[in-house]
Specification:
Layout: E1 4-9, H1 13-28, E2 32-33, E3 42-47, H2 52-71, E4 76-81, H3 82-87, H4 90-94, E5 100-102, H5 110-118, E6 123-125, E7 148-152, E8 154-155, H6 166-170, E9 174-175, H7 178-190, E10 195-199, E11 207-208, E12 215-216, H8 217-225, E13 232-236, H9 245-253, E14 260-262, H10 270-275, H11 282-295, E15 300-307, H12 314-327, E16 331-336, H13 344-348, H14 355-378, E17 384-392, E18 399-403, E19 409-413, E20 422-430, E21 435-441
Parallel strand pairs: 1-2, 1-3, 3-4, 4-5, 5-6, 7-10, 10-13, 14-15, 15-16, 19-21
Antiparallel strand pairs: 8-9, 11-12, 17-18, 17-20, 18-19, 20-21
The structure holds iron/sulfur cluster.
Iron/sulfur cluster (SF4) is lined by residues 157, 159, 161, 164, 166-167, 201-202, 239.
Length: 442
């Protein structure tokens, strides 16, 4: 009997890309995907461990799923991804309904782990690898729009940022064979996709020095952009200590490399950046922002900010606010510091900033960013921007939506356009989240 797998994905873009690899591996092993969780023989929850509340959410979800197992004992439940890697066998102690625990580097083993679980055993594989990139696996696309897709170019991370659990749950950094990246992007383009986002924890340190090739991220990006001018290319995430002028020049040379860079700052205080082991200073970060503005004047810049890291003073916090003001970020992901077990900060630094102070500072960071984002959108009113259509707008099928090269969402009246079309849109007004306008050229 053909087994059906149902997969739920939590966390970052990397996990979305991983779920597509997982479905591909299981499909090759004879599984079919179930659109409804009630039809599944195997339920996989692909998890995130970046903050405590991410894991709490998973425990609640597992509780909700376990009733299915009470109804049908034959169902196999698997916890995969970063939380599975962080907790390992402890997951089985915490939740007796979980049958499989699989870390991010063990997905090739999933068919075997399923067989083991089906024979009544708990199945665990949380081995991290120095080699695994799933380069030969053709992911099964799980997105609904068929226009934009993620392509992972590397796995793991060698940066040991003090607050971050990623190196412990995704292992050391390894880059993927560029030929396999180009093959995957070509497959996507030929099947109608018009945008790819190249993924890595720190794409700037991508490097392939094998088979007589010596390819860094800038060269790889150029090769991907060279596939077709109709293919938009995005990438995430950059690291301020590694982003080079050479990369910025490459971005400026190709219209189809999107003019948006996500450059996590985390803090504006040199003392905190040192404690975080970010390996750059406020001045270096500002220099990188200036370089982006110099080589790519119309580039939008987004960032990550953490409030309330260990020992953070009001003065450190003010330094974060002034950096944000100076940089004029278009968008930010903003969080309170959440101590992660096993990290350098958890081992060495006391999580001593009171929760209410963390929240107050986060509120200040968010309200500043809202002002900056509103200004960034207001500056687009009156401009004609190229938009890649992704789908109908969420609110009405009389409108379509897509994003600009700067990664801003635009909504406009539908006049018989198609997903994957490029249109020129005159921006007439904006809301806090969206640019609104009308098509001037199709
Ligand atoms: S660069 Fe730092 S924050 Fe990003 S994944 Fe690596 S360790 Fe974590």
């Amino acid at each position: 009997m053909i087994k059906k797998v149902y997969i739920e994905t939590y966390g970052c873009q990397m996990n979305v890309a991983d779920s597509e690899v997982v479905v591909s591996i299981l499909t090759d092993a004879g599984f079919k995907t179930a659109d409804n969780i009630n039809d599944a023989d195997l339920i996989l929850v692909n998890t995130c461990s970046i903050r405590e509340n991410a894991e709490q959410r998973i425990w609640r979800r597992l509780k909700a799923i376990s009733y299915l197992k009470k109804k049908n004992k034959g169902i196999i439940i698997g916890l995969i991804g970063c939380m599975a890697e962080r907790l390992k066998e402890k997951v089985l102690e915490e939740d007796r309904f979980v049958d499989i625990v699989a870390g991010p580097d063990s997905y090739r083993e999933l068919p075997l782990l399923f067989a083991e679980a089906e024979s009544g055993h708990k199945a665990v594989n949380v081995l991290l690898s120095h080699e695994e990139t799933y380069a030969d696996i053709s992911p099964v696309r799980l997105d609904k729009n068929g226009v934009s897709s993620f392509v992972s170019i590397m796995r793991g991370c060698n940066n040991m940022c003090a607050y971050c659990v990623v190196p412990y749950v995704r292992g050391s950094e390894r880059s993927r064979d560029p030929e396999t990246v180009l093959r995957e992007v070509n497959e996507l383009f030929n099947s109608g996709y018009r945008e790819v986002t190249l993924l890595g924890q720190n794409v700037d340190s991508y490097r392939w020095d094998k088979d007589g090739l010596n390819i860094g991220f800038s060269e790889l990006l150029e090769k991907v952009a060279g596939i077709d001018p109709l293919l938009r290319v995005r990438f995430s995430t950059s690291h301020p200590k590694d982003i080079s002028d050479e990369l910025l020049k490459t971005i400026s040379r190709y219209d189809n490399i999107c003019k948006h860079i996500h450059l996590p700052a985390q803090s504006g205080s040199n003392r905190i950046l040192k404690l975080m082991n970010r390996e750059y200073t406020r001045e270096w970060y500002m220099d990188r922002i200036s370089a982006i503005r110099k080589f790519i004047p119309d580039c939008s810049i987004s960032t990550d900010m953490i409030s309330g890291f260990c020992t953070e003073t009001e003065e450190d916090h003010q330094a974060s606010l002034t950096l944000m003001e100076w940089a004029g970020f278009d968008f930010s992901y903003m969080f309170k510091y959440s101590e992660r077990p096993g990290t350098r900060a958890a081992r060495k630094n006391k999580d001593d900033v009171p929760e209410d102070v963390k929240s107050k500072r986060l509120t200040e960071i968010i309200s500043l960013q809202n002002k900056l984002s509103a200004l960034s959108k207001k500056n687009d009113v009156g401009k004609v921007l190229e938009v890649l259509i992704e789908d109908y707008s969420k609110r009405s099928r009389d409108f379509m939506s897509g994003r600009t090269s700067q990664n801003k969402v635009v909504v406009f009246p539908d006049k018989g356009y198609y997903k994957g079309d490029y249109v020129q849109v005159l921006i007439e007004r904006c809301t806090s989240a969206t640019l609104l306008g009308k098509v001037t050229k199709h």
